[in-house]
Description:
Immunoglobulin-like; Four Helix Bundle (Hemerythrin (Met), subunit A); 2 domains; nine-stranded antiparallel beta sheet; five-stranded antiparallel beta sheet; 14 strands; disordered N terminus
Amino acid sequence: MAIPSFFVSFTKILVGFCLLCMVHKDFVVAGFEEVRVEHDTNEPLTNGSITTAGTGEDGRSELCGTDLSFLGPPYGNMSTAKMVCSPIWNTFVLRYHQREDNVMTIILSAVYTTGWVGIGFSRNGMMLGSSAMVGWFNRKGHARIKQYYLQGAHASQVIPDKGELPLNGIPPVVSLHGAMIYLAFQAKFEHRLGRQPILLAFGTRYPTGFHHLTKHDDKTAVWFDFSQASVLNIDTSQRKNHGILGLMAWGLILPAGAIIPRYLKHKDPLWYYLHAVIQFLGFILGLASVLLGIQLYQSMNADIPAHRGIGIFVLVLSILQVMAFFLRPNKDSKYRRYWNWYHLWFGRMALFFGSLNIVLGIQYAGAGDDWKIGYGFLLAITLLVVIVLETFSCMRRRRDKSNLPSNFQMNTI
């Protein structure tokens, strides 16, 4: 069947326009805002403050001018003039000092009522695989501070007394002072810390059982430059958008477009145009997801080889499918059979690995149950639609066969 020229021209323009929009520089840099700590040359470094609205000299003194002697040695004995103090998120304030031997003293403070407060060190800005120091006061008023290994998103996968932070022999301390809770600890790193992904979170419910953390009430991830005391917010919405685009493309639109040729072939040529338009839309959303994933990899060092490798492989298969659309031979061509095999099996491979990559992405990102339930719902709906359509298709074939004359003979050639 010949392809109308206006349809080919329209799809070329549509794909080109979307590619142009996606690679625009505003798309690349959107969602990041740098907040830098300014230092008065006439005052010690501890009087630094983030240059945001409403934070002036009074805010500096209130946030960073607190005497820390209540923490006890060695944290309370350190000269505040040697420590960098930086408001970092909400009411969270980070104080730190790096020695020449790469031993770092870290003091995190935040407004506290109940529950827990934590700071985590991540490789790529994601919770999965990071280590965190968490402090709280239990219902009896006893202080608790522990290191946790964040193996996954569920509470059972946040493991107490485990982690990769290289704590030295100085015991960590948690203390209440006024309305603030203070977490203090020391760690000896292999190299001097520079730009480092930091996770911050708090929960208003107490840890349960054997110090298992309850779900956080709020969290954030930032790039913190320990050499310059600057904060670069990691826009978690970019990860969310990457996941939504991939889920829509490979979990909904492309599977729906693949169903049409199998069950609507009797509606010729409607099935063909529906299939082509839906698959092009899915390809564009999938391409947008890949481009956003590349941006996340470059900006967050989100090194997830399996997820990235499968994503690139699926993109290549998708591009080959788009090329197949423009190279589709006529029905009477001797090459049509081979084209059909190629188009069918490459499409199935792309759908399989696209679905697999959605599962891996949800797992690596430490996404919550909402994502798993949402994707499970899409899979269930797709499976239900296939079962219903397959049932109707079998019934139609049986009906057509029963309507044939009793002496009708099929041509076996």
